Amino acid sequence: MSNEKYDIETATELSDNTPPNPSTSRRRVLAASAILGTATAGIVPMTSATGEDHGDDEADQEMDAQPPEAVENDFEDDIDLLNYARTLELLEAVFYQRGIENIGDEGFRQHFDGWGPIQDRVADRIRVVRNHEVTHAEVLGQTVSQLGGDPVPSPEFDFGSAVQDPGEFIATAALLEDIGVSAYAGAAPYIQNAALVPPALSIHSVEARHASFLRELNDELGFPTPFDQPRSRAEVLELASGFIVD
């Protein structure tokens, strides 16, 4: 059974009926994918501690096995940082909602025909991911209010045909989840209030689970590297801005 429990305003109200522009949407996805590709440019065949080359197997692919360094701090304070995270969660929540409405259970089922039991479960799994993003956005907004700030309102989003075509939807979802994971990794070191660190890390780990699931649905390895690379606020917003109208 599907889980339709969600109540964030933007996940429903911003689901407009504007006809998508397929060429614009695909350009956005390809451009963002090209930028993301720079993070994996250093992939080399993995060699064991004994010097043995393990070959070309997908499971043996490994990026530079060095832990990442912190990125630049672009945040004024915790309220600024939390509103940045909320914007990304709103983007994901609206993206999933529009895709669910436009593609529907049967669209996902047909796209994954031949995948076995998962083909009947994808739509419900996507709803769970949608609900997580809604909850994240709500909790981040509540936390901003508790800190005396104003939760950022949702921007207007345009996902074009990425919320119409199931294959493009899955590819874009994997892209957005990877962006979200790198955004939390980049921002977390600059949280000033220590009490905010555990919930932020909890959201980060769930986003990483989403990313792994969507990567596998996109026929990619869900956990390609031993270390995730963080992104700065400027880098993340450059990637996400292609979907933000206002």
Automatic annotation (TrEMBL):
Pfam annotation, one family: Ferritin_2
Biased composition (Acidic residues): 54-63
Record-linked Gene3D superfamilies: 1.20.1260.10
InterPro entries assigned: Ferritin-like, Ferritin-like_SF, Pigment-catalase-like, TAT_signal
UniProt region (Disordered), positions on chain: 1-27, 41-68
Cited PANTHER family: DESICCATION-LIKE PROTEIN, OS05G0151100 PROTEIN
Protein name: Ferritin-like domain-containing protein
